[in-house]
Design a protein that fits this description.
homodimer, alpha/beta, 434 Repressor (Amino-terminal Domain), Rossmann fold, elongated, DNA-binding
DNA sequence: TTGAAAGCGCTAACAC
DNA sequence: GTGTTAGCGCTTTCAA
């Protein structure tokens, strides 16, 4: 029993005026066209009465715009990305845009498919934390004049715009802190794919700082899925081989959480037996047991900067798109998981 | 320097065939139309070469479908909803649909605006956790034949389809558990707006169970925003007036988290001085300090049921939409925050 | 086997 | 002040 949607035509007919007139009024262009206040009221009233809703397809087809932007991340259920999504959603709404969000699970092919799909759906612009191996796809998009902003992860040779944090510096701070606390045998727990910008930079920053103190950390790359079991398998193996580290640098909040679970399960005292520091802070870390030392990323700034960049491109379509990478600072927040207790 | 998008016409022209032919081939209707394998190949090759992407607007305008579904929740950054969003996103993708997600912050007007907007954007269906006061809007949608499934929250008199959990039963279990543990002076921490289905059912379930044990819990409704400060203000007042409860029933994961923060800040021993139980379990609760006793909701089942219902409506458009409410069971997971230690 | 053409609903240039 | 009209890109019916 589907009712037909009401169109401009329906309003025009029932009022005995032209479609164009109705369109003009409903788009607020009555002033510049000199439409009488009377007809304007009639039209507005009728539109209300029939509860007219503009057809987005027709409008989009005509205008070539969807007022929808895409957001692609690895996993929208990860607190880091879901906070970004929420921020961008709010910013977008202010400017009349909606957000269509997709998760890739770090799958390169899937990411390309999603980009294609979203473009077919005529999104006006894209914000993406990419899992690609190189910047080609994004340079292509930029060359086409398609507004795109990368967040979180960057590429050498990228020509499109990008917002990232100071991964290296953050990782170095974490390393320096661990050394200061007397940890000597660190393990870096990263995830695949290892080429990902954030992973690489964080690992390199951490390792290079450790090297300064004549320490060479082990680095392990875990599959993206199923963090808990992967971490457990690894820790188990390390225990068997008597190779347990005395501290862990977790590459993201997921891995850190998994670590905490596993350490607890194996009754490994944190921070006294094994310290833990995480890149990326989430609200829960501050009251976990133990509270987790973490490098906090400026989520609000990332969202705001990225959206601002995108909006600029969305607005002045004439000019060449700009490009450029913006680096945002991070902050090491020291909590219980890296401060050994005096009496153990 | 925007390149023009390539259209069916471009392919047709450069091949010297008709648009219709190209359309047929690209939609895989070449068999039933009896198009020669040769032309088919030509078309496919050309489409590939020009990297043709169908224009979603034109298609949608013609077909009246967007292959996009809407998801409206109060806050996509809340773990409960972000997990649901991720699940539905995955299910949707399998069936060729995308998800456009919006947050309302429990704002009734905003919710209505969003529904209108998404419909204008021609979403094919809607999954929503609503903050409305009554089912009118959704009964209207159903009457119009628009596919909609409510999740998490329901209404008396609702005619549309709905998936909820057994809020009352869960809250009762929580209450019974607290009593069993010897707690005698509970406080219910809920949020506004108080008319929300989940809030109401959880409060009622909890209170009615407590009444059986001759206990009348206090119930406080906090504004939706800024949970931490609201909880702190309240706890502070209770301490001043010497009215601190001996246990708290937090209505959702946000409030529970805020409670934990505040209790810690005030150095109030949990569970010995004040116990804490939460409706809705999130992964972090299991390794917080103390680990939080919580009522776990079947997030996967909620997502799957809701999507399945929606998909059914999306598919057979002919038949009258069904309606009906599905109730899913919950489970009390007992952890440290409600088990008093023997030696305190 | 293929082509022609109508029409989805809307906007904007132009005509009256 | 208001109407007419072309056309955005696509699908689908009918004709050839």
């Amino acid at each position: 029993m589907k009712k037909k949607r009401v169109s401009l035509n329906d309003i025009a007919e029932s009022l005995g005026v032209s479609i164009a007139l109705v369109s003009l009024v409903l788009n607020g262009k009555d002033a510049e066209q000199g439409i009488s206040a009377e007809t304007k009221q009639k039209v507005l009233a009728k539109a209300q009465e029939l509860s007219y809703k503009p057809n987005h397809f027709a409008r989009g087809l005509r205008l070539g715009k969807s007022f929808t932007i895409g957001l692609i991340v690895s996993d929208i259920a990860n607190g880091f990305y879901s906070r970004i999504a929420r921020n961008i959603e709010d910013l977008a709404e202010v400017h009349g845009y909606n957000l269509i969000t997709c998760s890739t699970d770090e799958d390169i092919e899937r990411e390309l498919r999603l980009i294609k799909l979203l473009r077919a759906k005529q999104i006006d612009g894209l914000i993406i934390s990419s899992s690609q191996e190189n910047p080609d796809e994004f340079n292509r998009l930029k060359a086409e004049g398609f507004p795109v902003v990368l967040i979180d992860r960057c590429f050498d040779g990228l020509e499109a715009s990008c917002v990232v944090v100071q991964n290296r510096e953050g990782a170095k701070q974490a390393a320096a802190h661990l050394v200061e606390q007397g940890y000597k045998n660190p393990l870096v727990l990263a995830i695949e794919p290892a080429h990902v910008f954030t992973i690489r930079e964080r690992c390199e920053g951490f390792v290079s700082e450790m090297k300064k103190h004549s320490i060479s950390p082990k680095v392990e790359f875990l599959p993206f899925d199923d963090a808990f079991n992967e971490v457990e398998r690894l820790i188990d193996k390390l225990i068997q081989n008597n190779q347990l580290p005395d501290c862990i640098f977790a590459i993201n909040n997921n891995i850190a959480t998994a670590c905490l679970q596993v350490l607890r399960k194996y009754n490994i005292d944190t921070p006294n037996k094994v310290g833990l520091v995480c890149f990326d802070d989430i609200p829960y870390f501050s009251f976990m047991n133990p509270a987790v030392t973490a490098i906090s990323q400026p989520v609000d700034d990332i969202s705001a900067s990225a959206f601002e960049m995108l909006l600029k491109m969305l607005k002045d379509e004439k000019t060449e798109l700009e490009g450029g990478v913006k680096h945002l600072p991070v902050e090491l927040i020291i909590r219980e998981s890296t401060i050994k207790k005096i009496n153990i």
